[in-house]
Specification:
With 388 residues, the protein is α/β, with parallel strands linked by helices. 38% of the residues lie in helices and 16% in strands. The termini are far apart. Bound molecules: pyridoxal-5'-phosphate (PLP) and zinc ion (ZN). Zinc ion binds next to loops.
């Protein structure tokens, strides 16, 4: 196998990758997987990819699972990168693309992370997984855990979209609703996990969800013929996708597939919960908790993120930036995107459309640039947010 070790993303401390791990034992920050890319690159090549299966497992050599038999899959990944020229001309940007992650199993890009995390849990023989979730991570965990024959213990805010609550229950998960935010759900998992024997698969508090999500970066490069776009807008909660893509770009450069140029990365957050936007603007590397977080884009309702410094480092190194949009702007953008292109996006995905308008108006993005937006989930999961 090419997966050779686990190290701390902040202090570099090595950790044993043959056993389940959560965060760095020294400093409490996220752990990253490391690969022998030289060896991986002997079989994983742009050439060899042409004939591989259409799921994220096409990048097997740079994913952590050892035995094929442990892979838990519904065929996640390899979602279309759709040109959206009608929306583009409306907004005044010539080359606009949407990576449509709503086409993943369980209708969001959380499937990528959970496919990797649950496969690794299966490899390690873990029996009980627990997660605090704003919604879609829960739905994905419930599905992958059921498919692996593993117990799922899910903690969600009571006002999580109904579809997420129902899909978890109907997939056999143990669901607890909490009057509070995802941070309160996380505290409850932390409080009970030792006694209950749960393994915590919180965002960036186990090392493999980010590995699954980094395939976004590989797919973006491959689908654009190994030439990355000028700008990428990412609706940011815990930031796994953003951090994962940044890691993927590095790996691909080491594999010799791309050069040192990077797309400018933009974090899009909801005005009612924008800790990364605020920290970036204040020039901070670590973000304070965003108090009284409120937005109907539940995936963006993450007031405190353990990977804050990784996101802010990537935004800076890419010369990108941040933008906050209101819920009203998101729901206008859902209709615009739907009417122009037939994509019924989650509010988080539509937030990118709204954010792009601001970035164009303020001159951060130019009309002739190639821009990629992520539609991270499906509008149908948020029906209670729409008027009849
Ligand atoms: C979780 C989620 C996000 C945020 O993703 P992170 O990786 O936590 O930043 C965005 N959109 C949707 C639909 C989500 O479910
Ligand atoms: Zn550390």
């Amino acid at each position: 196998m090419y997966y050779t070790g686990l190290y701390c993303s902040a202090c570099g401390e090595p950790h044993d990758h043959q056993v389940p791990q959560n965060i760095c034992v020294k400093c409490g920050k996220p752990l990253f997987a490391r690969y022998d890319l030289e060896a991986a690159g002997r079989t994983l090549t742009p050439e060899s990819l042409r004939t591989r299966g259409k799921s994220l497992w096409r990048y097997r050599e740079v994913l952590p699972v050892r035995d094929e038999a442990d892979i838990v899959t519904f065929g996640e990944g390899w979602t279309p990168l759709l040109p959206v020229p009608r929306l583009g001309s409306r907004l005044g940007v010539e080359r606009l693309l949407i990576k449509d992650e709503s086409q993943n199993p369980t209708q969001s890009f959380k499937a990528r992370g959970m496919a990797a995390a649950v496969s690794m849990a299966k490899q390690f023989g873990l029996q009980k997984l627990a997660v605090p979730s704003a919604g879609n991570a829960a739905g994905a965990l419930a599905a992958y855990a059921a498919r692996a024959g593993i117990e799922a213990h899910i903690f969600m805010p009571a006002d999580t979209p109904r579809a997420n609550i129902i899909e978890c229950r109907e997939s056999g998960a143990n669901v607890t609703l909490i009057n509070g935010l995802i941070t309160d759900c996380g505290a409850e998992v932390a409080r009970r996990k030792a006694e209950e024997g749960w393994f915590d698969v919180s965002t960036l508090k186990e090392p493999y969800r980010v590995e699954g999500k980094k395939t976004l970066g590989y797919e973006l490069a491959e689908q654009l013929g190994w030439k990355l776009p000028d700008a990428v807008l990412y609706p940011t909660g815990g930031g796994t996708g953003l951090i994962g893509m940044w890691k993927a770009f590095d790996e691909m450069e080491k594999l010799g597939w791309i050069d040192s140029r990077r797309p400018r990365l933009y974090t899009v957050q909801a005005a009612g919960c924008a800790p990364i936007v605020r920290a970036f603007k204040e020039g901070k590397r670590f973000a304070d908790e965003f108090l009284n977080a409120a937005t109907r884009a539940s995936g963006l309702r993450v007031p405190k993120a353990i990977g804050d410094f990784l996101m802010i480092d990537a935004l800076k190194a890419s010369r990108g930036g941040v933008v906050a949009v209101t819920d009203t702007e998101m729901f206008v953008a859902i209709r615009e995107l739907g009417a122009a292109e037939g994509i019924f996006a989650a509010p988080e995905g539509a937030a990118c459309v709204a954010g792009l308008k601001t970035l164009l108006a303020q001159g951060w993005i130019q009309p002739d640039e190639q821009v990629v937006l992520f539609n991270t989930g499906a509008g149908v999961k948020y029906l209670e947010c729409f008027e009849d």
